Amino acid sequence: MRKNIVAGNWKMNTTFQEAEELIENIIEKLETEGTKSDVVVCPPALYLEMVSDYDNEAKNTLSVGAQNVSEHEKGAFTGEISAAMLASMDVQYCIIGHSERRKYFGETGKQLAEKTERLLDHAIRPIFCCGELLEEREAGNHFQVVEKQIEEALFHLSEDEFSNVVIAYEPVWAIGTGKTATAGQAQEMHAFIRGLLKNKYGAGVAENTTILYGGSCNAQNARELFANPDVDGGLIGGASLKADDFIAIANSF
Ligand code: PGA
Question: Under a CB-based contact definition with an 8 Å cutoff, are residues 205 and 162 in contact?
Answer without folding.
Answer: yes
